[in-house]
Amino acid sequence: MSGFDSVGSERFLAALSAVPRDIVGPPRIVMACVAVLAVQRAAIAVEVTGTGWEVLCASDSAADRFEALQATVGQGPGIDAAVRGEVVVVEDLALIQHRWPLLGAAMDPGESGAVYSIPLQAGAVRLGVLDLFCAEPGRLDGSRWVAVSSVATMVTMILLSDQNADGAEMVLGQWWNSAPHTRDIHQASGMVAAQLGIPVRDAYSRLQAHAYARGFTLAEVAVDVVARRLHFNPASEVP
């Protein structure tokens, strides 16, 4: 994926400005992506220092669930794209179970379509990934890939507007602060770390395991921890 489409970038910025004012924060970005690209939904997820994979925003509930499942099981095309710094294409969601079995097992049977995972990075800074979803299986053609590449570049530039930090949650600045899932997971990881007397990263892994074992998403478990409906007992392997 190469090239830069200045016209497509201008269309993206125009679409970003046209998003209704009642939609605030990160969702504005993915709504603009859907408006200008040949996709039906979009989502952005980031790797957070000290914890793990977290959903920043999604254009709808289907995209949000896919990202939440990736965060819960710790694998998927978006995570691979962000870690490797390379585009990952899944031409048919039916193939997910062969490449990422835990993700495939967590998905609803019979899901179809395609997903294109584009890393959001600038030099040595890796923010996360832009996941784009099509309702029909298949690949995007060359001209549409150029548009996707250009929009991904614009999204990265927007998210990097706050340059004075190292971690993704700091670099993202205002975008991070308005993402409710990330706040809940971050807070829940800290609470579980205190309850069990373990590092925050290990607490995040415990949250993942608890969510996966019980068929919940990581975000759903985090909400219960923050609301103090769920407490992790250091005397037992299972909370």
Describe this structure in words.
The chain has 239 residues and is an alpha+beta fold. The chain is built from 12 helices and 5 strands. Helix 11 (200-214) packs across helix 12. The radius of gyration is 18 Å and the shape is globular. The chain has a 5-stranded antiparallel sheet, with helices on both faces.
Q: How far apart are the first and last residues' alpha carbons, in Å?
A: 45 Å
Strand order of the largest sheet: 2-1-5-4-3
Average pLDDT, to the nearest integer? 82
**Low-pLDDT regions:** 162-173
Strand content: 5-15%
Largest sheet: 5 strands, antiparallel
Share in helix: 40-55%
Coarse morphology:
globular
DSSP helical segment count:
12
> What is the total tally of β strands?
5
Rg, Cα atoms, Å: 18 Å
Run of helices and strands? HHEEHHEHHEEHHHHHH
Class of secondary structure makeup = alpha+beta
